[in-house]
Specification:
The structure is a homodimer.
Chain A lengths: L5 H10 L15 E3 L6 E10 L10 H18 L3 E11 L5 H18 L2 E9 L5 E10 L15 E5 L4 H9 L9 H7 L15 E5 L3 H12 L2 E5 L7 H5 L5 H6 L5 E6 L4 H11 L3 E8 L3 E5 L17
C-alpha cells in the first residue's frame, strides 16, 4: 500500500538526474531558490506541442533541447543569463520509457552546455499529442534588461547568425525541399540561443526572431511608433538557405523558428556591437534601419518593395 | 505588413488585463521580477489537460481558477506566500473568444482573492485537447519552507478541511453519484488552497493531498522511513460526502483532487496548530499517527485493516 505510483519511477529514472540545487530531488511540492542578491529575475514560459512546434518523428533528444533553447533565446533577447528551469511534460499513456530516456538525455547535454539545471515541474498523461512547457528563470543587473520598446529613427537593424534556416529546415523535414547535408533540419531542431552578449548600453531595443523576421520587426516598429526598411539582399542566409534559391527567399523572411536576435542599434554603437559579437563568436549583420512612419518595408536588389503574402506565423 | 498577428489581439483582450508588475504588459520576450529581499523563492509548475484534470464541459472560468489553485496549494504545502505566476495555454484553433474571456474572468476573480498577478507565458494552438500549465512563484523566510521529509515516530497526522469531496465531485459530474446541492462538483472544480498557515516550527513535515490521502501519506512515510496508522472514522468528511454512504468511503481515502494539507505534527505542537488554524478559519482534524515500520495502515471502526484496491492516482 506504500509502493510509489509508476510516474514516480519515471520521474526518478529520467528527470531526477537533471535536478539541481533547490530542486529538493523533485520530491517536494515545490522547489526553493535563493535569488542572486542585487539582481533582477527574468522569467519566461513557452509551450511546445507535437505537430505544431515539432514533428511527431523528431528525435526526442532534440525535442527537449529545442524546448530549452527557445526559452533560453527569450532570456538572450532580454540580455539575461540563465539560472534554472521548470518543466512540464504531458505524454500519452504508453509512451515508451526510451522516449523519456532520450528526451532527458538531450536535456542533460544542453544543461551542461548552458550551465543550467532542472528545478521542478510536473509529468502528466494526455489523450492528445505530447505537450511540453518550460519556464526559464534568468537574471540581469537591475534596469539592464533589453526591451522590445526603445528603437529610434536612424537606429540600424542588426541580426545575429542567419535567417530562414528554421523555416527551410521544417520544409526539408516535410520533404518539400532538398537538404543534402542535413544542416537545415539541424537548425529547425536545434536553434542556437544567442546568450552572452552584454547588450545594455549598445542596443536600444531587441527581441528574438521566433515568428518570422518581418512580423517580429513589426513588433519593434509598433512599440517605437516607427517604420523599418530592410534590404533583402543584406539579410544573411546560410549556404544551405542560399542554395535553396530565390523561390525560398520570401519563406526565409517570414518563416519563423530562427531564434536569432533582432536588434536596434544606434550607428555610434555599431563598432561596440561588432566587438561584442566577435568576442562571443557570433556573426552579426546590419540589414536596414528604422525610419519615420510605420510598417516594415522590404526592398529588393533594385530598391523595389517585396510583396509578402503574410508577415509571419500566428497560432490563431 | 505590420498588423499584429491574431494571437496578439487575443492576448491583449484576455490576458493583458491580468498582467501585473514586472509583466511589461506581456509585450516583451520575458518578464522581470525583483525578488523580495532576504526571502527564498518557492517555485512550482503544474499541468492540466482537458479530459484528464478537468472535464470538457467544465465552465472555463472554473478551469482557470482550478489551475491557479492547484499551484497555490503547492505553495501552501511549503508554507509559502504567493507572488506571481506564468501561464501557458494551448487550445485548438477555432476555440471561441468567449471561452478565453470566461477563462480569464475566472483568473481575475482569483487573482483578487489571492493577491497575485500574471507575469508572463505563452498562447499556442494544439490539434489536441486544451492543455494548460501554470508556474507559480512564492516566497518564504530562508529555511522555513515546510518539507515532505521530517516526520518522526509519534507525530500526529492532521488534515485540513474535508477529504474526498474532489473525487466524489468528479463522480457526481460523471453522473455516477447524486449531488443534490452541487457542493461536491464545486469542490472538484474549485479546490481551496490552504494558504496563510505559518507552519514553520509547528509541523515537522507536510504536503498537499492531490493524488489520494493514502498514496500521499505514503510519500511522507517513505521519506521518514516510517509507517502510518489512520483511523478511517476520524477522516473528516463533508456532509455531502458522508451522505454518499459507506460505498464511497474508500473512494474518499484514495480519490485525489482534495488539495487539503496533510501534516505531521508533534503532539506538543497540536495546540499551537489548532490556534493557527482557528485564526485562519481553517478546520483541522487529527486522523492518526506515524509509527515505526512502513506502510499506511487504515483501520476501520473495529480496528480492522481496510483493504484498498489502489492507494491513489497515477498518470502512468
Amino acid at each position: 500500500m506504500t509502493k510509489p505510483p509508476a510516474e514516480f519511477g519515471l520521474i526518478a529514472r529520467h528527470f531526477r538526474p537533471l535536478a539541481g540545487e533547490g530542486s529538493l530531488g523533485l520530491l517536494d511540492d515545490a522547489a526553493l531558490m535563493t535569488p542572486p542578491p542585487g539582481r533582477q529575475l527574468v522569467l519566461t514560459a513557452d509551450a511546445m506541442v507535437e505537430g505544431v512546434h515539432f514533428l511527431p518523428d523528431d528525435p526526442p533528444d532534440t525535442i527537449g533541447r529545442k524546448l530549452l533553447r527557445v526559452n533560453l533565446s527569450d532570456l538572450a533577447a532580454m540580455a539575461a543569463a540563465p539560472l534554472a528551469y521548470l518543466l512540464t511534460v504531458s505524454a500519452p499513456r504508453g509512451t515508451p520509457d526510451r522516449w523519456f530516456a532520450a528526451f532527458a538525455t538531450g536535456l542533460a547535454v544542453d544543461q551542461a552546455l548552458f550551465g543550467i539545471s532542472l528545478l521542478g515541474g510536473d509529468t502528466t498523461s494526455t489523450p492528445g499529442p505530447v505537450s511540453l512547457t518550460l519556464t526559464c528563470i534568468g537574471h540581469v543587473a537591475p534596469g539592464q534588461a533589453l526591451r522590445r520598446a526603445g528603437a529610434s529613427v536612424g537606429d540600424e537593424i542588426w541580426v545575429t547568425g542567419t535567417i530562414g534556416d528554421g523555416a527551410l529546415g521544417l520544409a526539408a523535414l516535410q520533404e518539400r525541399l532538398p537538404d543534402p547535408d542535413g544542416s537545415l533540419a539541424v537548425r529547425y531542431r536545434l536553434p542556437q540561443p544567442r546568450l552572452g552578449l552584454a547588450l545594455h548600453g549598445i542596443a536600444s531595443a531587441g527581441m528574438d526572431v521566433s515568428d518570422g523576421l518581418v512580423q517580429d520587426l513589426g513588433h519593434l516598429c509598433r512599440l517605437a511608433g516607427l517604420g523599418a526598411r530592410v534590404e533583402a539582399t543584406r539579410v544573411p542566409l546560410s549556404p544551405a538557405a542560399a542554395a535553396a534559391g530565390p523561390a525560398w527567399r520570401k519563406a526565409c523572411l517570414t518563416g519563423g523558428d530562427d531564434y536569432e536576435l533582432l536588434l536596434a542599434v544606434p550607428p555610434c554603437r555599431a563598432a561596440a556591437l561588432q566587438r561584442l559579437a566577435e568576442a562571443a563568436g557570433i556573426a552579426i549583420t546590419r540589414i536596414g534601419a528604422f525610419v519615420p512612419g510605420e510598417g516594415v518595408l522590404i526592398l529588393d536588389e533594385y530598391g523595389a518593395p517585396v510583396v509578402l503574402d503574410s508577415p509571419g506565423w500566428s497560432h490563431f
